[in-house]
Amino acid sequence: MKILKLDYNECIEKGLLRRTIASEEKAKRSILKSEKLLSDAKKNKDMNVLDGTVILAYMSMFHAVRSVLIRDGFREKSHVCLVRYIEEFYAKENKLDMRVINLLDRFRNIRHDDQYDIDFTPTEKDADEMLAFAEECINIFKKLIKN
Questions:
Q1: Distance from chain centroid for Cα 116
Q2: Which domains does the chain have, with CATH numbers?
Q3: Of 12, 37, 38, 45, which sits most exposed with the smallest number of CB within 10 A?
Q4: CB-CB contact of 135 with 38 (8 Å)
Q5: CA 68, 106, 133 angle in degrees (round to 5)?
Q6: Is 147 helix (H, G, I), strand (E, B) or coil?
Q7: Which of 42, 68, 47 is nearest to 131 (CA)?
Q8: H or E stretch covering 18
């Protein structure tokens, strides 16, 4: 697995995080998308479709996190930089626990392996942990976009 090592400043310099028009309405819609994806991920898990569960659970996390960027007036061009943004402006400011950052990075790597590595197979434990954390992400980021 190739792990990208970018920090917030590199994301800005490379254009992987860009300023855009802030939108509370779009941030709320990103949360709604996150909730729909989580529902679909749970349906996949019920059918024992672990690949689908992992990808949809991760995308649920992605859209939950992305809601904050949208509300703050940023657009990401990299999943890594999405996490670096919230690390810089939320975790370092003690508005978010570093545990969230670490789990987002971990689950981003699992999703990446599942999607691109032909020899990778997610475990039931991966799927269950990702479902639980996706639900937690929705709750965390719903609160953050209201502040």
A1: 18
A2: 20-146 (1.20.120.330)
A3: 12
A4: yes
A5: 60
A6: coil
A7: 42
A8: strand 17-19
In angstroms, rounded to a whole number, what is the distance separating the alpha carbons of residues 144 and 124? Answer: 30
The terminus-to-terminus CA distance of the chain in angstroms comes to 37
Q: What is the pLDDT of residues 73-122, one digit of tens each?
A: 999 999 999 999 999 999 999 999 999 999 999 999 999 999 999 999 99
Secondary structure (DSSP) of 49-71: -HHHHHHHHHHHHHHHHHHHHHH
Report residue 73: phi and psi, to 5°: 85, 40
Reported as type and span, the H/E element at residue 74 is: strand 74-76
Does residue 75 sit in helix, strand or coil? strand
Q: Which of 119, 131, 118 is nearest to 49 (CA)?
A: 131
Say if pTM beats, i.e. exceeds, 0.85. yes
